[in-house]
Amino acid sequence: MGEKPTLFDETANDFASKFDRLIVAGRYRRGDLFIAAAKQSVPSGGYILDYGCGPGRISALLGGQGFRVLGIDPSPEMISVAKRQKAELPSVEFRVFESRPLDVAEGTFDAIVCSSVIEYEPRPEELVSRFIAALRPGGALIISFANSRSISRALFQRRNLHLAAQQHTWSWIQFKGLLENAGFNLVGGAVYFESFFDRVAPLRFVSSWQYAGALGLVVAVKK
Known about the structure:
By secondary structure, this protein is α/β, with parallel strands linked by helices. Helices cover 35% and strands 22% of the residues.
């Protein structure tokens, strides 16, 4: 008998469909932020790890910008969905990985992308330490964190299964300290995104307010 599907296995197709609709509509703010940060922080053609890649949409967008990408995720169904993307992605590879939080050779990657993952990890400090080991000197970590000050998060956490499954949230100061203690230098402040204001076009800009956006995106560089 196989293992019981996880919440992420069961929702893989829904995740992919949601992101695809946003991409087609030109409203995939998460993807836009990660791609912009990668273009500013990673050498052209650099090797990027997409840790917890889910259905692989950010991996594919990074590959479309000329980066080499390894997308890994513990959910077999997420990886299956990621591999079914229609676009030719010769520079993008997807793998299911078993070891957590991360077990790769030191100094392997020019950058690591981590979108909505660290809040689910039981030991986030250990994950960040593994990230810094896996990066080459000067390598960039582009990561989102669950914003503890978000009104949207407070309103929807009990009704959203994925939000309810998260083990950690942080304020900007707390998350900044987590990264700095591991040996990262922060590049600028946090950029906030995703809130219920996204549903109303004239109010989408409000998601960038620290008390609205459920997520904050940070760029940090290995010292």
